[in-house]
TrEMBL record:
Belongs to the short-chain dehydrogenases/reductases (SDR) family. Keywords: Oxidoreductase. PROSITE patterns: ADH_SHORT. GO terms for biological process: carbohydrate metabolic process. The lineage of its organism: Bacteria, Pseudomonadati, Verrucomicrobiota, Opitutia, Puniceicoccales. Residues 14-154 form the Ketoreductase domain. One of its GO terms (molecular function) is oxidoreductase activity, acting on the CH-OH group of donors, NAD or NADP as acceptor. This is SDR family oxidoreductase. The keyword Oxidoreductase applies.
Length: 260
């Protein structure tokens, strides 16, 4: 049984790039990928945050290192990819997880805030998919792109209007690319976290908001970052996830199944 499971989820020899890997959720995903055998590249702004995660990975016998790029610049992302390929030989998996949020009421949303969230949450994913997608196509050996969506990209949530719109765009982009690149064995999926306490949503999680969330979550708790790892490994694996593309893998404690 152990060898069977290893063959399904073993990612030894693969290289995974995790954009947003210095954050809480994508950091846990990066750590899970590394423990499954990948050389994992954590992409973010803070080397200090990355180093804490890299130390945990290395203590567990894994391999990881830090990279940075201006995610609003296609050239900067391309340059980063070039450095990674030069250092690690290839890239097989891309996780797109950079994100920002804001709880501004709809009529008060300033244009610069709207533009900023689309720049971070949507344009950065779009550009990384262009750069890494072309690399996967030119390489001709397939690949896995995992875009991090949001429950608010599936179900409208109050008080996060712009964030919801940016994530809905990511969901749509992922499905379009999955359809486009499936013949070339490039799989594109969206992982959809439910409610996980993270740096980007702390402003939104008031006492009233938490009560609303718990009342709508059958498991009656928040998710833990490590609970995203299983879905990540499924989507990353060319064996376990070989026929999985264009889908939204929801990890939400039953939130999306709840009505009244």
């Amino acid at each position: 049984m152990s060898s069977f499971l290893d063959s399904l989820f073993n990612l030894k020899g693969k290289v995974a790039v995790v954009i947003g890997g210095t954050g809480e959720l994508c950091g846990a995903m990066a750590e899970g990928l590394a423990k499954a055998g990948t050389t994992t590249v954590l992409v973010g702004r803070s080397q200090e945050k990355a180093q804490a995660r890299i130390s945990k990975i290395e203590e567990a016998g894994g391999a990881a290192y830090f990279e940075t790029a201006d995610l609003s610049s296609k050239q900067s992302i391309s340059d980063m990819l070039g450095r990674i390929v030069e250092k690690s030989g290839a890239v097989d998996i891309l996780v797109n997880g950079a994100g920002a949020n804001s709880p501004t009421p709809f009529l008060d949303i300033p244009e610069d805030e709207y533009d900023r969230l689309f720049e971070i949450n949507t344009k950065a994913v779009f550009l990384a998919c262009q750069v890494f997608g072309k690399y996967f196509l030119d390489r001709g050996q397939g690949g896995s792109i995992i875009n991090v969506g949001s429950m608010s990209g599936l179900i409208p949530l109050s008080r996060v209007f712009t964030y919801s719109a940016t994530k809905a765009a990511v969901h749509n982009l992922s499905k379009n690319l999955a359809r486009e690149w499936a013949p070339q064995k490039i799989r594109v999926n969206t992982i959809v976290p439910g409610f996980f306490p993270a740096e980007q949503n702390k402003k939104v999680l008031t006492e009233e908001r938490v009560a609303q969330i718990m009342g709508h979550t059958p498991m009656k708790r928040f998710g833990e970052a490590k609970e995203l790892v299983g879905a990540t490994l499924l989507l990353a694996s060319d064996t376990a996830g070989s026929f999985v593309t264009g889908t939204e893998v929801v990890v939400d404690g039953g939130y999306a199944a709840m009505t009244i």
